[in-house]
Amino acid sequence: xxxSDTLLTCAKYAAGASxxxxxxxxxxxxxxxxxxxxxxxxxxxxxxxxPKPTVVGLPYEDVTLTTPDNLKIKAYVIPARKHFxxxxxxxxxGKEERKxxxxxxxxxxxxxxxxxxxxxxxxSRPTVIIFHANAGNMGHxxxxxxxxxxxxxxxxxxxxxxxxGLSEGHPSEHDFFSEPMSIAHPAxxxxxxxxxxxxxxxxxxPLLGGTKVIVGGPVLVGFTGSATELAxxxxxLQLYGQSLGGAVCLYAASTHPDLVSGVIVENTFFSLSxxxxxxMPQIPRFFLPILLTEHWDASKxxxxxxxxxxxxxxxxxxxxLVPQTQMITLRNLRGDGRCTWRELNGEHNDxxxxxxxxxxxxxxxxxxxxxxxxxxxSKGGTGTDGIIEKDNKGDxx
Length: 397
Hints:
Blueprint: H1 4-37, E1 61-66, E2 72-78, H2 87-91, H3 95-112, H4 116-124, E3 127-131, H5 142-151, E4 155-159, H6 191-204, E5 213-217, E6 237-242, H7 244-255, E7 260-266, H8 272-279, H9 288-291, H10 298-301, E8 311-316, H11 324-334, E9 339-344, H12 357-369
Parallel strand pairs: 3-4, 3-6, 5-6, 5-7, 6-7, 7-8, 8-9
Antiparallel strand pairs: 1-2, 2-4
């Protein structure tokens, strides 16, 4: 028979082990949270290799921005064009023929952009800002850029946050100018500063300044091709974001409601403080306000977006990484504000590959944002099959 002293000793060891495990989990969250939340190193090589838009036949402008805290961050500008080689044409070409055609595209674009009618066309089209998710870099979202640029006739602006791709620095959330300094909120500049820098650049850009802006953030649509292979806006600026990119979009739209004409969010979390208990249930909720330095809290940003600003929420009902309840909470918080909710049969990383996805985006651009002249393909997928090689790497959060 086991004595009461033995039971008491076992209970003490069990309690000690539980508290030790809890302490390790809490300490790990505190110390490593930015590495966990912003895995800029994944997939392998993401900090060194950033595919260029030419990998899918898109001429572009390579941009280096300087933030207020003096970091250099990288971006792509992809102007809308009247004349381009269709995705279907490129898919039907052999590798050498396709490369030759892409080279010709670059040459013709350089000549075309010097003409007044080409410049005016780009200025007449909306601009989509793609804010990427927490893994990879802007180059991994190039297939999405082609869908917006070719099929939907939009200018595209892509940004690699600080600490991602070839951008300098280390990623974090906090606003360099307004976040209070405390143990839980160290005053470090972060992605919010990058957003402000990008919007300032766009507002004064000779082509993009004066266009409607749509903001959005995608998950990682990975591929294995190398980088070499692979002011008051008169019109519309649109934001597009997936997962973490969606949270970045909501921040941008909440701080610049006069500039942003539409927001697209896909499989985005409501806040890190509500998401982490679903991923790390061993950490008590009351610890989170003390431990978390990163928040991305939609309860503070979404209510600041005017109810008249159209938002498209795309939710993959099979999402196991960011449970759909997070997106549903976002939808409920939007209340009576303009919001189009679409539920698709996708997981966290492949919702944009579902057959209905781009048809829904196109309908929203046309009917809610008022973007005319959208006449490209609305087929499912990214429309780059046969042009680039894709893999199964995906978002980390």
